[in-house]
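fyi for ur records
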Amino acid sequence: MKYDVTVIGSGPGGYVAAIRCAQLGLKTAIIERYNTLGGTCLNVGCIPSKALLDSSEHFHNAKEKFELHGIGITGLKVNLPQMVKRKNDVVEQTTKGIDFLMKKNKIDVFMGHGSFVSAHKISIAKADGTKQEIETDKTIIATGSKPIVPEAFNYDKKRIITSTEALNLEAVPKRMVIIGGGVIGLELGSVYARLGTEVEVVEFLDRIIATMDGDCSKELQRALKGLGMKFHLKHKVNTVKATKKGVTVEVQKRDSDSTFNLEADYCLVAIGRRPYTDNLGLENIGIQKDEKGRISVDNHLQTNVPGIYAIGDVVQGAMLAHKAEDEGVFVAETIAGQQPHIDYNLIPGVVYTWPEVASVGQTEEQLKEAGVPYKTGKFPMKALGRARASTDTEGMVKILAHRDTDEILGVHMVCARAADLIADAVTLMEFRASAEDCARMSHAHPTYAEAIREAALAATGDRALHI
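which gave:
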């Protein structure tokens, strides 16, 4: 069996790359080592975590806000098994949708672990112990990433867990320690904090979501503290030890020798992810990797071996599903002889807590470091009529524009529906709009999007209308 293109890995990057290749008339195959398509994102990442986030948000609102809206509830309780079941149903529906798309686009699907025999031959090890080989002209590696778990943390998948296990707990824990103040830890931490778990976060750096704008870090931490979450910033974890009923986490202050222990039912390790390139046979064909284990690629996302490309979490850049999707389309169109383009500066980042956090472009810290002259416009959500009507008054929208040209350089927001609103900012920046352009655009009233316009007005000379 010979193909024009074979994709190894069926996450968002892989399956989108396969679909685009097929659309362009290329005979395409996709290889997936697990028994369902969709990769980490659809099975144990983006989709299931958002399902649990949504369920926990409904419970929290019923408990904390319904009375304010004139809705009385008695006997309110958490049914975590039902939440998990609904999450599993969402995952099943979504992965079946990928199955349909493969059939629709006439893409051959092979279930098994793919590895390179040569640059144009791939071996597929199946679950029943058999092997199959296929030939391919081009290959796209899209095998994603795995959680980083140091040996000192004694990861056992029972009490010391990663995001994968945290999605399937059978009961709401009384206490949980989270190692890492990044996106994954905070999202899952907020799920359980809303359901009543005492959550403590240990973060080595001096703020949470450290790659995002500093104002976003402050606003989100304030909101999460309101849920009861506690933070140990500038601290590190030395060891984690599990018992039959819980865990002991030894914590040390970053600039001190003193240590203390945190006791909890579970310890969630969320300190990042590593590229997953295990047993791919990369050494058989001489594919090069960098010091972090990522596959080295050129500006066309091609490896040092002609005809073999890599996308998503296995290459440099943010580990985001939509970044992988864009790269999948980029490579498919490159193989087909087109000249696609990706502006990595304009790939947004989102944290799906509540309020949500979303960001695109340069942060204020980056502009300062680069010496770029800029001006700032900020608008608090508590001044927005739509936010008051829905009791979602936490957060703000912040626009950074060039001081001389007024071009929008970055947009950062902590607010309700920020994950959807950030697309407005991406659109503006793709067309190199100025803050004045945004300020002159009509925004429907009352909407959350008005906060973007108000921030743009503030950036153009303290012209915000509602503060």
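The radius of gyration is 23 Å. thats all i got for now
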